Amino acid sequence: MEGAAVSAPSEAPGAIPSADDLIARVKSYHPGADGELIRRAYEYSREKHAHQKRHSGEPYYGHTVAVAMLLAELHLDVATVCTGLLHDTVEDTEATLEEIAELFGEDVARLVDGETKLSQMELVSQRTRQAENFQKLVLAITDDVRVLLVKLCDRLHNMRTLHFMPKPEKRERIARETLEIYAPLARRIGVNRICVELEDLAFRNINPDAYESINRRLSALRTTRASAIAAMSSLLSQRLEEAGIDCRVFGREKRPYSIWRKLERKGTSFDDIADIYAFRVIVTSPDDCYRTLGVIHQNWRCVPERFHDYISTPKPNNYRSLHTTIVGPHNVRIELQIRTEAMEAVAETGVAAHWRYKSGKYAYDAKAAREAGGDPLERLRAFVEILDHGGDPDEFLEHAKLEMLSDQVYAFTPKGELIALPQGATPLDFAFAVHTELGAGAVGVRINGRERPLRTRLRNGDTVEIIKGGVRQPPAGWEDLVVTGRAKAAIRKLIRETQQQEFERLGRVIAEHAFQREGKAFKESLLDDALSRLDVKTPEALYQALGRGQVTSTQLLDAVFPGQRSKQGEDPSQRELIDDEKASLFVHGGGLTPGVSLHFAKCCSPLPGDRIVGIMRKDEGVEVHVIDCERLAELEEEDPESGAGWVDLKWTPEARTNSAAIGRIHATVRNEPGALAEIAIAVREARGNIVNIKSISRSRDFFDMAFDIEVFDVRHLSNIVAALKTCDRVVSAERARYE
Question: Which of 217, 360, 417, 626 makes an SS bond possible with 604, Cβ 3.0 to 4.6 Å?
Fold first, then answer.
């Protein structure tokens, strides 16, 4: 991807690092690295991209070298560095994966393939393309996290040069995508060094005025506070040295985007932000971290609510540190972070910090990562679970963003396992985070030993015990009780499965009654030949199609007993269906112009037996309405020049004797097992044929539903309404005439 965002310092065209420069950087942390393989990958990339230029005017291969150098800064292995050099060759040149595998090995080819797949979707919707690509990225990550690290370094260099891209709208789109997807992913696996720069670069392109304003304020602060910061740093070092603690102390400045988020989230002013400047104390061991904390609190007053121990309770991305805020000289609040060198490495480079020598190989040491306080790769498991729950790509992207963008609250299982959740999470979020089946069967919760509602918001330190039930069916409104993408995806999957099961039950009832009307015993084995005729694969799929109205009972019987059934005329599905194409066969009127187009209004769905009238619409023909349709009042008020005019219409005899039409009924139904089956039986006994069912709204006790039913005429529909009103599980039923 071409592009770029401006960073300080800005990357402009200049000298491209040589192969020797890159090899030297890799060998500085991996002396046994295969320098010759890196050199060949470097020359291959330069050759393949020889005639390509970037928007900046520099040779395209300069981008691939920059990506490889960024990967080397993270101390990654040779295969990953080579992938940085080759990541665009298959997509943008005539190079093939087979050639890459032959020249550089299967490992490099597999990583290059993972990168290439992310850029090969061509869909109409930009949002859908983004969602599809994110799905592919997650799938690639599950195979090898190095794909994500290469992608992050690729995006970082593109953001550093985004200002060379000529189209502002494209710059903003790339910046927003970076802020919404790539920066949170970097934070997710703990690569803070890349995350904060991506955020600042995106922020600068999305809101340049705010970015410049904050930078001006920071520049002014540096001038006024430089001496105070130096003095405080020296004083800290002196106090710790007197206590016999070997350490290094340095100050850090809060990043512009981080300041902006705080200003937005808390509604405070720039002058009220206490932690624009903070100090980091790096010591040699975890014991020294706590000793350092004691020395600091003995010398300066601490702010109690501002203390966090992320060593005993690491963040989910394996971040470990002690945070405290003290009241320093001149009554100024000062934030401090205390950690070891190893913790510092994990905080800055996350998952990349665990590449090391092991058994003669330079590779990712997952065991060491877990022993250090938790493997950051575990934080990607939630995305895989969301993907497994199905749904369309946009839904997946929505849920994934929920997972990435929320601050954390920490709760415990009864056995003491730590579960990290977003702020505002509920016990249902907790249950689905532990296991999907636990969430699906949750009926209640005990928080700190007391029973509480499932809608309760969890707080840091809560111990949560989920009370399980036997029913795997989410009650109405469950989706509104959760905030995590993982829980929302799981609940939507459960709802889809429940609906499928309900349609399947309903379809089986319809099939059994269809056989009963024919005087035949229902046997599932009789459906074998009918499945292929109806283009369905399994009996369960057939039942679902029947329940959804996609296949009618008449079609089923014709498929099971082809040529054996008589045309009885008692089933409306056996008659000619009234539609716009055949409207002239069923409607006539003295005011109709020969050859004029007729079509039935969707707002009132006229049925044979209704009093009807036509509205002549300019360039559209005649629209047929029921005489008391509410839309007619609106049409009367239209400008006469619009071409609207009234036409007297009547139904032809054929409409009453040889046709059928679709009528709609609205019904309120009790939320009880068997309710739909009871309705299907009542409609069938009244000689109607359900062709579509739609759930309008759902509560804990009731469904509001719409049924589209094939009927002979308006009287027939009225009879079916009356039949539904006699059903025990139907609270109310009426014809739905106005949409």
Answer: 626
Buried-exposed string 8-31: b where 16+ CB fall within 10 A, e elsewhere:
eeebeeeebbebeebbebbeebbe
- Report the relative pairing of strands 333-340 and 277-283 from DSSP bridges: parallel
Q: Per residue, what are the HEC states of 583-618?
A: HHHHEECCCCCCCCCEEECCCCCCCCCCCEEEEEEC
135 pLDDT band, cuts 50/70/90, is: low
Question: What is the torsion angle, in degrees rounded to the nearest 10, for the CA atoms of residue 339, residue 343, residue 349 and residue 353?
Answer: 160
Where residue 379 falls among pLDDT bands split at 50, 70, 90?
low
**Cα distance between residue 37 and residue 22, in whole Å:** 12
Q: Which of 21, 92, 177, 497 is catalytic?
A: 92
Q: Of the listed 21, 34, 73, 91, which one is catalytic?
A: 91
The pLDDT assigned to 284 comes to 93
Give the amino acid at 410: Y
Threshold 0.90, pTM exceeds: no
497-544: pLDDT as tens digits: 777 777 788 788 878 877 776 667 777 777 877 787 788 888 888 888
| Structure-token match 């292929």, residue found | 532
Calpha distance 367→364 (Å, rounded): 9
194-230 per-position pLDDT tens digit: 989 999 999 999 888 888 988 888 888 777 777 777 8
3-state secondary structure string across 302-370: ECHHHCEECCCCCCCCCCCCEEEEEECHHHCEEEEEEEEHHHHHHHHHHHHHHEEEECCEEEECHHHHH
The amino acid sitting at 48 is K
* Residue 610 appears among annotated catalytic residues: no
Residues 710, 689 contacting (CB under 8 angstroms): yes
Token pair listed for 107: 């490992």
pLDDT digits (tens, 9 = 90+) for 38-84: 999 999 999 999 889 998 889 999 999 999 999 999 888 899 999 99
Rg, the chain, Cα only: 34
Amino acid at 270: F
pLDDT at 400: 47
Q: Which value, to the nearest 10 degrees, does the dihedral of the CA atoms of residues 255, 256, 259, 264 take?
A: -140
pLDDT, tens digit, 9 for 90 and up, residues 456-490? 888 777 888 888 876 556 665 677 778 777 777 77
Q: Which two tokens stand for residue 718?
A: 């009225």
From the CB of residue 658, how many other CB atoms can be counted at a distance below 10 Å? 14
Residue 20 known to be catalytic = no
Inter-CA distances, 440 with 169, 479, 665, Å: 43, 12, 33
Cβ atoms 652, 588 nearer than 8 A: yes
- Per DSSP, the residues of 36-57 read HHHHHHHHHHHHHTTT-B-TTS
Among the listed residues 45, 153, 77, the one whose alpha carbon sits nearest the alpha carbon of residue 16: 45
Locate all alpha helices (DSSP H) within 18-125, ordered by sequence: 19-29, 35-48, 61-73, 78-86, 89-92, 97-104, 106-117
Count of CB atoms situated within 10 Å of the CB of 134: 23
Query: What mean pLDDT do residues 488-494 have?
Result: 78
Percentage of the chain surpassing pLDDT 90? 18
